[in-house]
Structures are given as structure tokens and as C-alpha cells.
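Hey, can you fold this one?
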Amino acid sequence: MDPYAQYRQQAATTASPAQLVLMLFDGALNEVARAGYAFEATPVDLAEVNDCLGRAQAIVSHLSATLDRERGGAVAASLSSIYRFCQEQLVDANVRKTADPLPAVTDSLTGLRDAWEQACVNASPSALAGVAG
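Sure. Predicted structure:
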């Protein structure tokens, strides 16, 4: 295993649940950005686009699946709607082979990531448990 992969694995195994959510947001944003770069390549690297968008979809799906809808209430429902929107845009980009939907996904995920980071700084870990996805 390369040193960078070892570092990422170590970071994931020692991170708090709140930090793991941040890592998921970062991973999804990285994959969306990589898909954007693959769309810009000449010729377009459709295999890379497909791989990146697939990984981004998997991360967003995981974020959605881990929402605690019972304890999270309206916040969890709102997050679920945003994740569903992101999933739809990622599928649309992949099916239509266009980067046009990607800025909306980036904006949505960046906003959530930044809000989550701020919540991690300002809140106790138990306060985040209800909306950890």
C-alpha cells in the first residue's frame, strides 16, 4: 500500500464520527471535481467521468443512508432532499455526458460541508448525532 493510502486509512480509523462526515463530504467534492476535469480533457475521458461520478454517488448515498431521520427530524428530512437532488444531478451528468449539473452539486455539498464543519466546532458530539449523515 502506498504511503498516501496508508495515511488516509489511518486518518479514517482514528477520526471521530463528525470528522468522518467531513471526510465524506471532502471525498464527494473531490470526485465531482475530478469528473469535471475529466469532462474538460481532450478527448473527454468518459471512463474517468463514469468512475468519479459513481464514487461521488456512492458517497452521497452513504451520507443519505446514515441520516438518523427519527432523531434528526426536519433537519434530516431537509438533508435527505439535498442528497436526493445531488444524486439526481450526478446521474444526469453521467447519463447525458455533460458537466453542466456539476456546479449545482458542488455548491450544495460545499454548503453542507462548511455548515457541518462549523457545527463540529460549535456543538457537542451528542448534538450532532441526530443528523450525522
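Residues 28 and 84 are 14 Å apart (CA to CA). Let me know if you want another pass with a different chain boundary.
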